[in-house]
Amino acid sequence: MLSVTDSIRISSPFNDTRLKFLSPSGNKTRHQLTLVRNRPRISCPQRRNICRCSSTEQPQRRKHRSAKSDDEKGIDPVGFLSKYGITHKGFAQFLRERYKSLKDLKDEILTRHFSLKEMSSGYELMGMQRNMQHRVDFLEWAPGARYCALIGDFNGWSTTDNCAREGHFGHDDYGYWFIILEDKLRQGEEPDKLYFQQYNYVDDYDKGDTGITVEEIFKKANDEYWQPGEDRFIKSRYEVAAKLYEEMFGPNGPQTEEELEEMPDAATRYKAWKEQHKNDPESNLPSYDVIDNGKEYDIFNIIGDPESFKKFCMKQPPIAYWLETKKGRKGWLQKYMPSLPHGSKYRMYFNTPNGPLERVPAWATFVIPVSLGNNRSTYQGREQALAVHWEPPPEYAYKWKNKQPVRPKSLRIYECHVGISGQEPKVSSFNDFISKILPHVKEAGYNAVQIIGVVEHKDYFTVGYRVTNFYAVSSRYGTPDDFKRLVDEAHGLGLLVFLEIVHSYAAADEMVGLSLFDGTNDCYFHTGKRGHHKFWGTRMFKYGDPDVLHFLLSNLNWWVEEYHVDGFHFHSLSSMLYTHNGFASFTGDMDEYCNQYVDKEALLYLILANEILHALHPNVITIAEDATLYPGLCNPTSQGGLGFDYFANLSASEMWLALLENTPDHEWCMSKIVSTLVGDRQNTDKMLLYAENHNQSISGGRSFAEILIGNSSGKSSISQESLLRGCSLHKMIRLITSTIGGHAYLNFMGNEFGHPKRVEFPMSSNNFSFSLANRRWDLLENDVHYQLFLFDKDMMDLDKIGRLLSRGIANIHHVNDTTMVISYLRGPNLFVFNFHPVNSYERYTIGVEEAGEYQVALNTDEKKYGGRGLLGHDQNVQRTISRRADGMRFCLEVPLPSRSAQVYKLTRILRA
């Protein structure tokens, strides 16, 4: 047995039956074995292992258990094809091969990581990590480098003070570099006597600050832990060996190898020992015995005493005494100075076959441009960006106050960009967004905020899509703690927070981003043409590399764990799913989803991302943005799908834009509108719809309000007829888009009140002007824009109060291209749209299933919404007629003014 003075190793394997992520080999890289002992661990219950002698029986049992587990999970690689009756053999074979590749990929990952949870938690090891043994550990992946050093203001930008060389302890076979920054002793202080002395950096005081010496703690542990007689072997380490030698050879036994005669085999010695002690009392015998029936292998069959075994298992290591040596933060501050103070600026220095270079660490959690520094000359010509060590003292670190809201059954998403969210011509901050935008979102009736451009990117005009530092919040808007406060305040208002994540490509910048990170062209990205986007000038990830997967999957988990985000909108999947980056003509043929241009490695990454996110965070929401609508986007991964919760219908906004810009009002086709909005009826319930998102405003285009009512801010500069047309279509487009589809609707910031101007970020073409990089919130004081906002708010209340979007799929039963009327039922609500620009109908027949009284719940033509108010008060309630229409048993004869829509709610059921 070991004394408490011996080092104690504590392990805690991850055991989650939902993931089947345990490693068969348990192999780890050197850096994992080095750092894992320093991480806090939780002891897990012991498992009972069954040992068998047969060499063939164990693999058979494993195979049987695996097959049973698959049956329990319902694994079917082509399950969603069977569900929808798709009989394409080529695509079915592709799905089966993809499933086999997924299993092989998981096996490959588990040869290096203990579990997929650990593999997706790389942020616990990588980058800068505070170690409780008064030091900071730094870990980075750069397989192409020959030399690695940390340079910064903490060491005078020295390239030799803090380094790790190839072939030494700080570099392993996988290309990971490990550097230790020891905290500095204050003047007059002596190093700790214990090499494993730990400090609690959160609490001011800990048990080690009581004044009791280490020697007293160890004496107390030895006196209370060991039972009488057990500690004599600790005090005299040779006693056991000496006694064993005397029993075997006697007090005058042989002293040299020449005097030592040939020893009998183990079975003979055991039989002699049993014969010698056959008359001894049981108390003197060991708590085990050996079965010996004369067979060769009987000598290895040992039966243990259950009571002794139980007693042995109940004995726990004296961790409680060991923890009494841990000191608090004040004890550490009194004795040590931090090797890397909070706010320190640093970069990485590599020596590569192509020469020396500097990089911002890939796992840096806060990055600022040098121009934001107090003294640019301090950084010796480093004009790009610097990583900042973010480790505020506990009294200043942000503390979470609010719980994450419960996942709603329907989503009303408010999409926004923090930088342009203010009215002033400047880059707005997280704090500005908290004080001005979040209350507006709550008042408008939305239940989720989707933020774009939060992850650090080099150029502001790229909106945030050319990401350079995937683990860093953009310093343009504030600090990491500021963003935590934003998320926390949103949760306090009952709002979910989604992040638009860009893992489909990365910035090609070499000085700030990941391109040529270690001097080679194939560290994070593909080489050659495959590693470059054909049109956007960005780099394409190498999704089949386990280390790249380690980086990307950990990045998703990081934003959930560190910042408590509730979900992700995966941007531009088509650029990563195909080697042609989605720039090809799609006819809808299934061969286009399984031919040589499909990137199977990217598909496997998306499957892993959804499996891991939903297993570790069951309430997380993932949204797929794919213009090609890859089959199975929202189907379970166990059934051959990719596992997303929602997919964005991109064609809806494109249709509306084409109609508004290119088609006269009287030529609008109702059938086309309905078919585009509904899309594939098999997945309508998983569809996220929007009339216009940021693309119409940011990507060089105009907002719908600018097309419909121009840039005016009032009625005086536009004719009354044009203003009425524009506002009517603005309301009708949003109403049908938000209610005809699935369980999710999205609106871009400002469009709810008809923001009349596009967004244009400051760049060289506009002389870096901020005049259009803002939102005109002052327009809400104008009648026209306030009326549009009031309608949008009441439209959100249809779902907020009546749970409209969470109901089943809309029953579209009336689509007439001649009259330009659309009608559908959703729950107890009847929606009627008259898109005709001129014709009004006094008694238009619409079929309904339930007989009763239907009352107008929302009318786009009301005067408070800027309408004409043609419906009288006596027309707000309509009673059904016992006549079949539109395939329904009953019908209503409702008044339909031109360019208007009404929502009727069944308020009273009449029985025949």
What do you see in this structure?
The protein is an alpha/beta fold and 912 residues long. 28% of the residues lie in helices and 18% in strands. The chain is built from 23 helices and 31 strands. Strands 3, 4, 10, 11, 12, 13, 16 and 17 form an eight-stranded mixed sheet that branches. Helix 22 runs parallel beside helix 23. The longest helix is centred in the first third of the chain and has 22 residues. The N and C termini lie far apart (87 Å). The N terminus is likely disordered.
Outline, from the CA principal axes? elongated
Largest sheet: 8 strands, mixed
Tell me roughly what share of residues is in helical segments: 25-40%
Report the portion of residues in β strands. Answer: 15-25%
Secondary structure category: alpha/beta
- Tell me the distance between the termini: 87 Å
> Total helix count?
23
- Radius of gyration from the alpha-carbon trace, in angstroms: 35 Å
Number-wise, the strands total 31
